[in-house]
Amino acid sequence: MEKILLRNIDVPDLHTLMVYKSRGGYSAWEKVVRSMKPEQLIDEVKASGLRGRGGAGFPTGMKWGFVPKDSPKPKYLVCNADESEPGTFKDRLLIEKDPHAVVEGTLIAAYAIQCHTAFIYIRGELAFGAKRLEQAVDEAAQAGYIGKNILGSGYDLDLVVHRGAGAYICGEETALLSSLEGGRGWPKVKPPFPATHGLFGCPTVVNNVETLAALPWILEHGASAYAAMGTEKSKGTKLFSVGGHISKPGVYELEMGYPFKKFLEEDCGGVPNGRKLKGVIPGGGSMPVLRPDEIEKVNLDYESVQAAGSFLGSGGVIVMDDTTCMVRAAWNLARFFAHESCGQCSPCREGCHWMEKIFHRIESGAGEKDDLELILNVSGNIMGNTICPFGDAAAMPAAAFVKKYRDEFEEHIAQKRCTLRME
Amino acid sequence: MALEFSPETYKKFEETVNRYPKKEAAMLPVLFLAQREFGHLGEEAIAYVAKIMEQPPARVHGVVSFYTMLNMKPIGRHHIQVCRTLPCALRGAEKITGFIKQRLGIEVGHTTADGRFTLSEVECLASCGTAPMMQIGDDYYENLTEEKVMEILGELK
Questions:
Q1: Do B126 and A181 count as a contact with CB atoms less than 8 A apart?
Q2: Which of A141, A288, B78, B102 has the most CB atoms within 10 Å of its CB?
Q3: Domain spanning A17-227: CATH superfamily
Q4: Can you say how many angstroms the Cα of residue A92 is from the centroid of all Cα atoms in its chain?
């Protein structure tokens, strides 16, 4: 398979403009800004079939198309580099090793919607990544790729690297915009969507790092080359970051539709120490866990993973072997969501803490007979009842753990102790 | 005497604000500047930032209390943050935290008596492939073992 996102990742000093350019960097941007009309660019990306890689999988070109062309207000493009989904570390690799690809992709997207100010919102903890991006932006500005009258085209664009300050919810696009407006990272009700009412009420597009980093290749090689890869509805390639109980953790680029089981066993070397797979979360901590029997025929594309009852999400794969206590794993993630709930909507603010407490008491031997029904009840009352998808993201995995490993939960309750202590 | 930025920091503040389409959008970078200058963001620092950002102090307070990287209370010189989320937990994060607690003689959330270290547990830091891991200040320390942790702590003055 031809690599797109990781094609240059091992090239030494790729983060410098000189090396990035020597690998063909910024030629797509030059082509776009010199010779393409915004509508042409949008059509090209629509034809490529590229879908948002932040988790939702929304078609990128279509998202751009929602931005009004004749808006009297300023428009904004934001690169979402707030990678915080448990198990996900793919964007960090691109940001730290190939920052110019992220910058180039951001410029291309900004041009598509014809905005003159763009932001890269990077989670605050990634200090090194932010430095890399700032250096890349400075170098690109000095080379005339950013600024006034870019390459004599008459197009102006300023790009600001903006650091978050520690809040998972800011990865959700409307929360990110609230944060960028200088406030708490509180999500907003959609509609209206950011494409018409985004940053400071102005038309705004938010695209994920990986989505944007794919753009230079698509513009260089053409939409059809990208669309030729992957499946009918999931085009191109996607990054998967694999962690947990796996022999070769790391970031892998796969053609969409790659067999999940083969990927885990062959590419990632399988579960180490002669142990067996007990469960795997395919798309980051907010997606339902899958049992080994459920991944037999699953392929890594949006449709196939969804048909198996989970979601491809961010591509953050968390592997758990047969020594894992699933009650403790469920509690760990419930604690994450309880900690990260922004507190706006009661079902999420209260429910996440209740689920965390109940999982914890089962794990510590104080679980009660009706606790499992209680968790399912709380989870069901969060689902669909919150402003943003965070509520579902907390509720879905909690319910999946209980339903899929029910025996283990019941044993904990019956024996009043953890029956499989995880290290 | 009320807190205020040094002339150099004030210049940085003005440059930062100028980069944004609206002044209020610069809130987080300005709070980072303030935290670096004042050590932590107590009520006085919040009042000062509110004044220069032309925002109600309550709004600034709301922002500071929302984000984990903004500290309302003083912390140690080195802020050790061990990731506790599932991928790290599966690879021994609890053991690492336990080891640090024992070495420093403090609980999670506390600071050593000499003010050198504060220990926190934090959520996923996007480093799951090199778990267990921790962040100290701006730096990531990955693939941790007890030996490695001992070495790292020894090097921090």
A1: no
A2: A288
A3: NADH-ubiquinone oxidoreductase 51kDa subunit (3.40.50.11540)
A4: 11
